[in-house]
């Protein structure tokens, strides 16, 4: 059975989006070449990226135009992968999903992703998309969290875990980086 992973960048005070601009502007401080290289390991089993509407529009806007002459080797590798792989965007408001190899899912998440988990393949990964993560949590669909904690405090925004969340996690892997970021991988107990 496939698993569903939430892959998040999070502030030390628990927020995954500032709610300003792209919502992730605070990640630049600790996003080093060391962390970028390790991100390949974090994502090596991902074969189906999933986005909520806001994250999809940001990712599509950036990655669909990559790689370019200024792209690093890490950016080039990710751009080639994300532009070629099948993707899903979950939204009730988007009219279409124009990024190549993207399917728009509007309906019952439990039914559609329950079916996807039963199909052969690698890991289904929700990238950022905190509101979508909250919906998946409510439905009991998330099997694992892969979180990069950044050494910043922003004081508000969208938290990774909504109020009332109550479940146990088992640590699978951790690593710290010279930039001060820390990677934590937890499975839902």
How would you describe this protein?
The protein is an alpha/beta fold and 189 residues long. The chain has a single domain (4-166), classed as Dihydrofolate Reductase, subunit A (3-Layer(aba) Sandwich). The protein is 28% helix and 29% strand. It is built from 5 helices and 10 strands. An 8-stranded mixed sheet has the order 5-4-3-6-1-7-10-9. Strands 2-8 form a two-stranded antiparallel ribbon. The longest helix has 12 residues, at 73-84. The chain starts with a strand and ends with a strand. The model has no long low-confidence stretch (mean pLDDT 95). This is Dihydrofolate reductase family protein. InterPro entries: DHFR-like_dom_sf (IPR024072), RibDG_C (IPR002734), Riboflavin_Biosynth_HTPR (IPR050765). Residues 2-182 form the Bacterial bifunctional deaminase-reductase C-terminal domain.
């Amino acid at each position: 059975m496939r698993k569903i992973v939430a892959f998040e960048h999070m502030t030390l005070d628990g927020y995954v989006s500032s709610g300003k601009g792209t919502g992730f502007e605070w990640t630049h401080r600790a996003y080093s070449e060391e962390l970028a290289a390790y991100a390949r390991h974090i994502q090596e089993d991902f074969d189906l990226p999933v986005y909520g509407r806001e994250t999809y529009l940001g990712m599509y806007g950036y990655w669909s135009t990559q790689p370019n002459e200024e792209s690093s080797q890490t950016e080039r590798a990710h751009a080639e992968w994300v532009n070629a792989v099948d993707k899903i965007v979950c939204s009730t408001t988007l009219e279409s999903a124009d990024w190549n190899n993207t399917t728009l899912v509007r309906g019952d998440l439990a039914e559609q992703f329950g079916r996807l988990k039963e199909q052969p393949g690698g890991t289904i990964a929700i990238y950022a998309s905190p509101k979508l993560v909250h919906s998946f949590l409510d439905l009991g669909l998330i099997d694992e969290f892969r979180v990069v904690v950044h050494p910043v405090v922003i004081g508000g925004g969208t938290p990774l875990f909504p109020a009332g969340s109550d479940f146990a996690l088992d640590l699978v892997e951790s690593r710290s980086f010279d930039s001060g970021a820390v990677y934590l991988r937890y499975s839902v107990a």
